[in-house]
Write a structure and sequence with these properties.
four-stranded mixed β-sheet, two-stranded parallel sheet, 7 helices, alpha/beta
Length: 209
């Protein structure tokens, strides 16, 4: 007896709901994510097998980079409000008044490597020029006669205590090619303020190498 042919059914899936969910998720991530600020002084950190996560707030970072023997020091603080408060205290220390616009620009600057007396000029540069200058900044003075890094660290620690009621965490991010005296000078500046515990930023290295 002849078998009847089975009718082929079209296999179609309505993807409308899936597309709606995808666009909703995409919109959510776009609106809630924070753009990564450009790194002020790119450095090639040394490798290490130790993995320690840096704090996501209440952290100051001292970056050491540049040509070996001519290292520059940059300083940055996490948190826009903490940055502004630190800038205001530095302005009071050096008798420099920063405008609201300059404070806003500084709030979005991850790290600074400009001497305090030239900072207003740097903050008033057009954004595209300021981003290009970036790593070409001369660095924060760290010598004994004009130790501005000490003042930045001190002001940031005061802000952390006043605003967050916490002790400021400090991280040192040094280039793998940086000379030891440049790194030791930064450590000495921190220890002079009794900052004896700090993070060392490194890259991840496989234990087999």
């Amino acid at each position: 007896m002849a078998k009847g042919k089975m009718k082929k059914k079209s296999m179609s899936v309505d993807m409308t709901a899936m597309c709606d969910v995808s666009f909703l998720l995409l919109t959510f991530f776009v609106l809630t994510s924070t753009a990564k600020l450009p790194e002020p002084l790119p450095v090639d950190t040394p490798n290490s097998t130790v993995q320690t996560k840096l704090p996501e707030s209440n952290l100051a970072t001292v970056t050491i980079g540049g040509e070996p023997g001519e290292e520059k020091v940059f300083f940055g603080v996490l948190g826009k409000e903490d940055r502004i408060a630190t800038l205001e205290k530095m302005g009071s220390r050096y008798q420099i008044e920063f405008s609201d616009k300059e404070k806003e620009v500084f709030a979005y600057t991850e790290g600074i490597g400009t001497p305090i007396n030239e900072l207003k000029k740097f903050l008033n540069l057009p954004p595209d020029v300021r981003n290009k200058v970036g790593a070409d900044e001369p660095g924060i003075p760290t010598d004994s006669v004009n130790n501005q890094l000490k003042d930045w660290v001190e002001m940031a620690r005061i802000v952390a205590k006043e605003r967050n009621n916490k002790v400021l965490d400090v991280a040192i991010k040094g280039d793998a090619e940086a000379n030891y005296p440049a790194v030791k000078n930064v450590i000495d500046i921190l220890q002079a303020q009794r900052v004896n515990k700090f993070f060392l930023v490194t890259g991840l290295r496989n234990e087999d190498f």
